[in-house]
Amino acid sequence: MSDFWQRVLVYPFVVLVLSLLLWAIAGALPAALFFGVLMLWRLFFHLRNLADLQRWLAAPETTDVPDGSGLWEDAFSKLNKLMRNLRKEREKHAAALLQMEQATGALPDGVVILDASDRIEWCNLLAVQHFGLDTERDMGQQITYLARQPEFVQYLATRNFSEPLILRNSRQDGIVLSIKLISYGKDKRLLISSDITQLERIETMRRDFVANVSHELRTPLTVVNGFVETMHDMPHLENDMARRALNLMGDQTVRMESLVNDLLTLSRLENDQNPVREETVDVSALLHEIFKEGQLLSNGKHQLHLDVASEAKLSGSRDELRSAFTNLLTNAIRYTPEAGEITLRWADKDGCLAYCVRDSGIGIAPQHIPRLTERFYRVDRSRSRETGGTGLGLAIVKHIAMRHQAKLEVVSEEGKGSTFSIVFPSKRVVA
Predict the structure, then answer these.
(1) What is the dihedral of CA 30, 31, 37, 39, to 10 degrees?
(2) How many Cα atoms sit within 13 Å of 125 on the Cβ side?
(3) Which of 129, 269, 322, 357 is deepest in the core (most CB within 10 A)?
């Protein structure tokens, strides 16, 4: 028998023995009264300790665990030890939580923890500033009730968080935020907001500088090119060296003019104050025009094919789309050897519409593909200059695609050719 049951049964056993002795001495009635009184007193003892336990349970944080006696003393002692351990654990967790809050408070970004329904569970001070939150009133509220910018609401609704959202119309006027959502745990998300106002200002200054310099270069380049052409047409210019020099000067001024024009085009495309001029574009007719220009540029050196598999039209800027489509075709002609094949295709692709240019040219190594749309990035610098490229064509194509909510896809293999595709979302398609 365990120690607990021994201690439980000792008292009633002793009372019973004493009652039996009293019965033998004084009779049954005094023995029964004696037994009843002692058992009632024991019951009162247990009820009193139980009442103490009830009082403590009503306010365990502000009152001490009762002392008790007998079996209750052991129970209260173990309960007191358990409470001390719980307090230590709680203090440890509180210290860890405080450290986490201090660490997230020291972050240069705003952090908001969202649940599966986009309700706010926690945020740091920078997030409070970025979104105008209240750490007491707004806990448990949906973030879209507080940050009502349409682009932000749409960003959360699409559930496509591969790219950050640039938010310019935030609660604080004049600041630009970069918003990124990261999933973790079970249906939890971290919303991270970064203040990129200074970076945006620097980028704007860079764009303005490039645009201004490019604009200022146009006039002297035009003058120089005019003089070069005039000198080249002089009837008495018999020096071969001079003619070659003038030819080279003419080629380089033309190339510089193309570079300046491309830089100005990029600055215009990057300008947020220059929205897309929406119009219905007959892509089929546009591709037939571009195809004829490609045949003239190729001059019979390549086998060009046009495959228009859809009559759907696009909503967008015809001039910008023409520039992007022409750039991809021009690149294919430049980097495809003579007698190679080039195919222009307009067709459905995974529920969207895509303009594809496939060539049998030299191809591109995998390590170069992610950087193709960088300004002035060249896979083969010497060959790019020989073909007359400015190094800005694919950067222009990428920006035009982004302005039309499209994406530029590149599939290539060295020695087997490349396929460049601009994939337009269904919302841009006019049936």
Answers:
(1) -170
(2) 9
(3) 357
Contacts of 350 (CB under 8 A, 6+ apart): 423
pLDDT tens-digit map of 126-135? 888 888 888 7
Least confident stretch, 255-269, 297-311, 399-413: 255-269
What is the distance of C-alpha 271 from the center of its chain? 22
pLDDT digits (tens, 9 = 90+) for 97-107: 888 777 777 77
As a whole number of angstroms, the distance between CA 313 and CA 318 comes to 11
**101 domain-assigned:** no
Look up the domain containing 208 and give its range. Answer: 202-270
Per the structure, the count of domains in the chain is 4
Tell me, yes or no, if the pTM score tops 0.85: no
Based on the number of CB atoms within 10 Å of its own CB, is 137 exposed (0-12), middle (13-18) or buried (19 or more)? exposed
